Amino acid sequence: MASTDKPTDPEYNKEARPPPPATVNYFAFDVSLRVLLFAAAVTAVVVIVTSDQTKFIPMLGILRKAKFKHSPAFVYFVVAHCVAGLYSIITTLASLSVISKPNLSTKFLLHFAFWDVLILGLVASATGTAGGVAYVGLKGNNHVGWVKICNNYDKFCQHLAGSLAVSLFASFVLVLLVWLSVYSLHCRVPK
Amino acid sequence: MASTDKPTDPEYNKEARPPPPATVNYFAFDVSLRVLLFAAAVTAVVVIVTSDQTKFIPMLGILRKAKFKHSPAFVYFVVAHCVAGLYSIITTLASLSVISKPNLSTKFLLHFAFWDVLILGLVASATGTAGGVAYVGLKGNNHVGWVKICNNYDKFCQHLAGSLAVSLFASFVLVLLVWLSVYSLHCRVPK
Q1: What is a single Pfam family found in this protein's UniProt entry (chains A, B) (predicted)?
Q2: Which of A100-109, A136-145, A169-178, B139-148 shows the highest mean pLDDT?
Q3: What is the DSSP letter of B148?
């Protein structure tokens, strides 16, 4: 009988509300996603930076280079992913520090969600920018006379495609990170 | 003395925790932002759809049209902003319904934040895609022989620039919407 009485005991309620949040589990998942984001950002940068290709163009009779630096869109893509990579290192360390100091977790969740949204905007726009220009490179545009280049620079375009795929994955990881922070905050709100 | 005793009174604490959320104020701001998002999405679509321009090209001796439909990047941009506009109508109605039923507000905040993040990713990537291709139109790319077109099609490019600026504003409104939901959830977590 003593056990069924417990919920009506004021001292018991005082202890039970708010419920202890599952901080370690949440932040362990958060750290894993941030490490994944770091890996994706570094991979995207490495793959696009190593895309340079030199090819002999028979029509012009000369050697020509395709470099990611030739397009401001790809330079923006690299800068955005360097920022995302750096951000993932800082927030992984911050997330690890929360595991040792769980009392700060609610504040960190708010800050993580705020910044993750901004980095998502940056990475998604960079993916779009590079993707838009890469598509012109792949298909060309007859209406304005932009020729396709992927028939000549196959390695260059393969690297671009790989890098864009990884960047899309990084955007997805950032969406998951925001969802995780929001869901964790929602779980702490008393019903 | 009675007033200083109040905080130690268990009955007083029971009433004070959790504090009543300022649902109407929050959702009034939320509705305003969603109306702003709708206006931005519609403006971006209207401005880019009305950008078509016909010009006489002296070098070719013919009339040529510049149309947004000629580039898949701009078509993606229009589709993304139509989705964002439709989404803003649905969520404005949902947000208005919460003002009349405040007990559902926490659940709605979670759903809003989840979906707003996805729409932000869509709008940001569409802005990047169209921006990347518009930049090639503005500056050209000598390395791959893509000529600039904005020196001929001035009205077309002005419309593109205007539409991109409004789209950037829409992305910013979506970031604010996510921040607002996250902050409101954070305020409801007991300290």
Answers
A1: CASP_dom
A2: A169-178
A3: -
Q: Give the pLDDT confidence of B141-174 residue by residue, as tens digits.
A: 999 889 999 988 999 999 999 999 999 999 999 9
Residue A6 falls inside a structural domain: no
Please state, in angstroms and rounded to a whole number, the distance separating the CA atoms of residues A98 and A108. Answer: 8
A79 belongs to a structural domain: yes
User: Could you give the CA distance from residue B86 to residue B63 in angstroms, rounded to a whole number?
Assistant: 37
Q: How far is B116 from chain A (nearest CA, A)?
A: 10
Distance (Å, whole) CA B23 – CA B31: 12
Structural domain span for residue A137: 23-188
Cα separation, B158 vs B141, whole angstroms: 20
* Nearest partner of B110 among A20, A103, A113, judged by Cα: A113
Compute φ and ψ for A65, nearest 5 degrees: -100, 140
Whether residue B13 is predicted with pLDDT greater than 90 in this model: the reply is: no
Asked if B125 has any chain A CB less than 8 Å from its own CB, the reply is yes
* Separation in Å, CA of B178 to nearest CA in chain A: 8
pTM (2 d.p.): 0.86
Helix (H) or strand (E) holding A57: strand A53-57
Q: How many domains does chain B fold into?
A: 1
Paired residues of A146 in beta bridges: A141
* A35: in domain: yes
